[in-house]
Design goal:
There is one protein chain. With 149 residues, this protein is α/β, with parallel strands linked by helices. 51% of the residues lie in helices and 22% in strands. Strands 3-2-1-4-5 form a five-stranded mixed β-sheet. Helix 1 runs parallel beside helix 2 and helix 4 crosses helix 5.
Amino acid sequence: MGNYLAIDAGVKTGFALFSDKGILLKFSSHNYGSMGCLKRDMKRYFILCDPLDAIIIEGGGNIAQAWRKEAECRNIDVIAFHAETWRKEMFKISDPTKTKAVKELAIQTARKIIADAGLPLPKTLMADAAEAILAGYWAIKKKNSEAAE
């Protein structure tokens, strides 16, 4: 079984790598500044995270499409959705688009997942990394519960 790479798709990209059991292995974020820089570095993530069962993409647009295309070229499954999808279910809130409050809640919740995984807590956790962690956590948990049914 392979790993799962969760991505908060944007020029400021969040990454979270999970084991096939849904345990957070590592996380990071990077501000690429442009789509071109991101595309040049994208292949590196597929190599570093190999073997991958799937990538989990939070977001849409050209950047999400570029990740999808790269995964499909490598025959890696893609799980894609928008942030509002996991935010509604994980946070039980009526308006998952209130960005500032939701991002702060995401950071707090991601810190708990990091600690539960036994990873060192960063002094500063960027919102894009936190959202990648939560998107991956939610998608894997949902996939595993559907498989158990």
